[in-house]
Amino acid sequence: MDFPVSGSCDARFLRVKEEFTRNFAERGEVGAAVHVIVDGTTVVDLAGGWRDAERRRHWELGTLVDFYSVGKPFLALLALQLVDEGRIALDDPVATAWPEFAAGGKEGATLRHALCHRAAVPAIRQPLTDEDLWNWTRMTGALAATDPWWEPGARHAYHTNTYGHLIGEIVRRVSGETCGHRLAALVGPLRADVHVGVPRTERSRCAQVIFEASDRTRRLDFDGLEGDELMEMLSYFNPPGYSSMGVVNSDAWREAEVPSTNGHGTARGVARLYAALLQPGRVLSVDLLAEAVSPQSEGFCPILHEDVTFGLGFKPTTPRRAFGPHAGSFGHFGTGGAVGFADPHAGVAFGYVMNHVIPRWQSTRNRSLIDAVYDSL
Length: 377
What we know:
The chain is of the alpha+beta class. The chain is 33% helix and 16% strand. The chain has a 7-stranded antiparallel beta sheet with strand order 1-3-2-13-12-11-10, sandwiched between helices. The protein is globular and about 60 Å long.
C-alpha cells in the first residue's frame, strides 16, 4: 500500500473501508476522509492519502480542506436560526434587513427567495478584482447594487458563489455578527470542526487543493456573451477567483469569508453537524427544519444546466442527486465530490471531504462510499 490510511471502522462497516481504500488504489483519490455516524454512534472515522500534490504530508483525521458548496446549508442554518428566534421571517423582504438590496427592482426579493436561489442575483454585474474578494463590504455593496437577472421569485438559478455574500450579509444585518463568528458559535458545542474564515492558528492543518480545471473554468473573456450565458460566466468568474481558481491555497482565501465556497472542515465536523440536525430541536425547531429540507423550488437551472430541486439551503434527495435510498434525506454536494448529508429514516449522518477536485460534484468515489454505508446497514 503506497498511501497511508488511519482511523477506525466498526467491523459491520468494513465495506466502507474497503471502498475508501479502493478510491486511492483505483479511482485517483489523493487525500480524503470519511466519517459516518449511525443513531448517534460513530461507525466510520477514516483518513487517508496525502495533503499535498507532492505526496509528502499525510492526510490526518484533523486535516482541514475547502469543501466548497457543502458549506451552503451551514450558512443557511445561521439565517434559519434567526427565523427561529423571531428576528426575521422567511417571507420578509431582504431589504427589510438590508435596505440597499432593494436597488434595481429587488425590493420584492424575500429571505425565502434568497435561501432557495430565487433572489435573482446569481452573478454580480459590476467588474470586480480578486482584491475586492477579500473585502466583505465591497462584495456585498456590489451585490446589492446589481440589477436582478429576472424578477425575484419568478424562477431559480443556482447562486453558486453569491449565495455566501447574500445570506451572509442578511445574517450580519439581522444579528450584528459575521457569519464566520456565528458559525463558530454554532459548531463549538457540537465539536464540529468546520470554519468560514480559517483561524490563523488552524491553517497549518489545511490540505492543498489540487484543482483540475475544465475548459469552461479557464474562460475569463466575457466579450460577446449576453443573457443567461453571461450570467453564468460572471457567476463563476467575477471576481476572477470567486470560484477559488488561482487563489484556493492562499492565506488570503483561507482567511476571507466567501461562505458559499470557502468553508473548510473535516469529514468528522461535517458529519457531526448533520448528526446534530437529526436530534429534534437541537439546532433548529422541528417544523422549520422540515420546511427547510422540503422542496421549495423545482425546475430547470441555467447555471447547472439541468432540472434541480432546492430546499432552503439544503438539497432534498432526488434520483439525480441522491444521498441514499430513502426519501427525506437532505444535504449538499460540493465541487469535486465532497458531500455531507443526513438520513432521518436510517439515522445516518455522513461526511466526506477530499482535495483532488475534479470538475463535477458526484463521482465514483463518493458514490462508492455512500453505497457501501447502506450495504452495511
